[in-house]
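Quick illustration for those who missed Monday's session on complexes.
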Amino acid sequence: MNDAIAVENLTEEQAQAELARLAAELDRANTAYHAEDAPEISDADYDRLKRRNAEIEARFPQLKRADSPSEQVGARPADGFTKITHAVRMLSLGNAFDDGDVAAFDQSIRKYLGLGADTGLSYTAEPKIDGLSLSLRYESGQLVQAATRGDGAVGENVTANALTIADIPERIDGAPEVLEVRGEVYMSHEDFAALNARQEESGGKSFANPRNAAAGSLRQLDASITRDRPLRFFAYAWGETSEPLAGTQTDAINRLGALGFQINPLTRRCESPAEMIAHYHNIEDQRATLGYDIDGVVYKVDDLALQHRLGFRSTTPRWAIAHKFPAELAWTRLEAIDIQVGRTGALSPVARLTPVTVGGVVVSNATLHNEDYVAGRDANGEEIRGGKDIRVGDWVQVYRAGDVIPKVADVDLSKRPQNSEPYAFPTRCPECNSEAVREVGDAVRRCVGGIICPAQAMEKLKHFVSRKAFDIEGLGAKQIEMFFDDELLPVKTPVDIFTLQSRDADNLAKLANRKGWGEQSARNLWDAIDEKRTIQFGRLLFALGIRHVGEAASTLIARHYGNWSAFESAVTAASGFEGPEWDELLAIDGVGEVMARALVSAFAQETERASIDALVTRLTVLDEERPQSDGSPVAGLTVVFTGTLEKMTRAEAKARAESLGAKVAGSVSKKTDLLVAGPGAGSKAKKADELGIRTLDEDGWLELIGDA
Ligand code: IVH
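Prediction with 2-(butylsulfanyl)adenosine bound:
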């Protein structure tokens, strides 16, 4: 985030660009968190982005976007479940970060209600459970529907799943005719650890934290899986009710308790902000021993008539706020700096620490990001931490926010050992001794060994079998580590996975005799591998783990070329980074020069190419279909745009053509079907003429595609 410019100094243009960036970033974070259960940024960073967005919008209200993140709660529901429109929207909470924010919350409520500073005003204070919210609809005492929050308006129907949770009663007696009970589904620390241990053993996905485990377990299309995952539920709110539950929040919650729901025992009534803050610290003190994750304390106006008067802003109630816990910090000794080598050869420094408890979690490793970070510089060469470097033996501050990897944030120079030396970042790969080089503009030093480097080869394999790549059941990161170093059945490159069975006659026995394996599990693995011998082109490309070539780009590239052999000959022909094939690659929307170079280089590198070719001969690669373009007059045609376009930008023209199933190329060749030439067209128009290629002007093109 560009915090460098204070909001008051932003120009309108800068503000607009930043709002666009924040919307995209928050959207991505929302999807990762809610729809994929795999958060990419910490809660603290997320809150920071949201606050920055709100500040800019407050200063430039005219720039507020139609898709403004401040109007959104969570992310859209994932496909697969039926959708439920909530009778009463499920909202989010505003945040308080310090005592001043709590006082301001009380003052704003008094102001809104016209209450003087001396008028009594009660609140409740209770833990903010770090799980996922759920709305349970009871009609005549019978649970008829359970829905996740989704985007606040529409959630997912998880009724069958909710029914497997012991804390959720199927029937309740003495409740209003219609009652929607709302609360949080969560997983205890103990159950989380046991689940992850089981998942690891069976080669399944392990979860980053209890909240993701709870979300992943609840949102199972097969409810019998949910049944095997020990989920719990705390009730703390309600949606539609056919008659009022009570006169106060306290009584309403107690009534939910009497109806058979779990309510949080740390809920208190408070008569002033000072009491609220005292209870906040009380809860904070118990945080590490609660046995489940909480990330703050929620305050609510106790009187429900006042809650009703206060009502809601667009996404948050005026009568409640979440007082967040600060990110956790602790000081400890840096015992060593290890270098880990990643899939693309990146050398990442990792801090080995004297174990220390940070917010109830024992931390013994933390990230040091990269060479510059250790040296006390940022990517632009500017000082960070006041220029203090980090040395082995230093007394360092460890920072943990939510569920992200802990990092070393600061160093105490007064405790630096006398004889300490600046850390010398290695210039050779610690795994394979190849040179480790840092290219201009790259923050990262990389091993140039490619798949000769065992660390890179292993990480590439782990990526190859990961969920969005080959996703082979029973062959996860742990099994890859076992096979990689196996003497009898080694797997060093992807093709080795597909030759495991055919390498020699008694390999089934070799595997079955291994500790933890048997004949059945070995057979299961063979079957799982066989199942993945047929693969979609785009997925295969992503699985290769080529630097810069991510999942989305792989799909775009695969769609462009349609089939593997067309793609393969094109990237091979582009090896000189010039010529029509190179231009064509660059012309694909979403493929930039950096990515194109990485792709072409990977196919030009001898060992890597041999490994890819060997793999492909063992697979059936399915063609990648272009998106729906039924009845399109240009489907399948190769089109080149040249000259100035007046009614659209080049990017727009390209995207439109591609959405109609055309292939857009950067230069004219015999394969070109159509040239669209605007004013100022030069050599391309001439060449098209020579080759007898059909040429249209911009209007002719628009007419052809029906956009005129
Ligand atoms: S009250 C109208 N109470 O926090 C607001 N929410 O950040 C109703 N949450 O969506 C929510 N513990 O999923 C409330 N004790 C608690 C909570 C709580 C956790 C979650 C809930 C909400 C989110 C907002």
